[in-house]
Task: structure prediction
Amino acid sequence: MHDIVFTAEALALRDKARAIAEKYVRPNASRLDKSQEYNWDATRAVAEAGLFGVFIPREYGGHGGSILSLCLVVEELAKADSGYGVAFAVNALGSFPLLTGGTEAQKQKWLPQIARGEKLVAFCLSEKFAGSDAGGLAVRALPEEDGSWTIRGEKKWTTNGGVADLYSVFAVTDPGSRSRRISAFLVEKGTPGFKIGKVEDKMGIRCVPVVETQFDGVRVPAENLLGGRPGMGFKHAMMTLDLARPGVAAQAVGAAQGALDYANLYASRRRQFGAAINSFQMVQQMIADMAMQTEAARMLVYSAAAAADKNAADLNKLAAMAKCFATDAAVKVATDACQIFGGYGFMEDYPIAKFYRDAKILQIYEGTNQVQRMVIARNVAREIDRLEHLAKYIPTEVQDRFGAPVEEGASA
Ligand code: CAA
Result:
């Protein structure tokens, strides 16, 4: 558990996000969900309020780059509309490769524009045949004689695709290498050969475009290779996901709180058998569980965010825990909220069906919850070394069943 400290600035940013969410996000959520349109009014307001600077350090025009502040902002936006929560948060995801792996010149060129909301950003990692196995990419980037690179291939599930001005693109530069196979590039919208392909028709988060991005011989200058040298892409992708997963988890907390709020209000007004349904113990139990899960998720998210802000050694584990726990909680809470609405919960007349549809993707993107559990288990297994002293408390008569420690390199 890390100390969670909310600065006055972080709380002020949260309050701005809450005001924008109530003015521009919630009132338009249902309409934009139906039409699958991006919420430009909200984005203009977010930019004017300086909220795109929340994940950017001060020296590049931001508010300090605190992940905890980012989570507070995302939570407020997602409470009003989970789709807009990700439409905002994906800018952080797309910017983290630059923040973690960019050269000073690259940061100075791009980050101030991102902080001002002049450049929206997207993240192009996944491909048709490379989802959970992020190392198995096929999109290629080939070096040219003048030092530039040519990118060929297709990316899948690019959130913000078409809306974004800048794309962090991961491509294979050294197919023969295991750990230095991949590099990351910044590709600007409008670069010849860069095209938006299929626009997905989604079950939820319909106000943010998710598309296929095509790279048909896209030539990018040498200065757009992140970090200035090839081979660092996979590491930067993993470091990016560690920083971004608390934000997805915050989106889940917002979504859960949003669904809980509607269910709470509905249960106080809906009368059956001559009484408000929130007087029935079975409904009370559901609401109590929903509130507990939401609050527990919130604490884990803030703890993971605090770990990110300290660059703590357990960030990888905590980010995966927060993402997994909070998104599972959001799906459970949204499902129960729908149940409390009964038959009306299944109808699109009420806002709750959208919460239910929006929640599912949280368990899938930015690493499925199966991947998160794998990451958590790997981290927990690494803690075994500090547990060796416990072996002496195993009674000698059962030591034979406890087994000897497995030697390094030996198969289990
Ligand atoms: N930080 C730094 N380096 C890391 C790292 C981390 N968190 N995790 C791994 N690495 C390094 C390792 O140290 C290793 O380096 P060396 O080769 O130098 O030793 C290298 O990366 C390979 O690591 P692994 O062997 O652990 O890699 P793996 O192939 O077993 O994969 C994985 C690990 C966790 C499954 C990873 O592939 C993964 O996270 N998959 C999920 C991908 C994902 O989240 N995709 C989401 C796309 S984004 C999205 O969905 C956005 C959207 O639309 C909104």
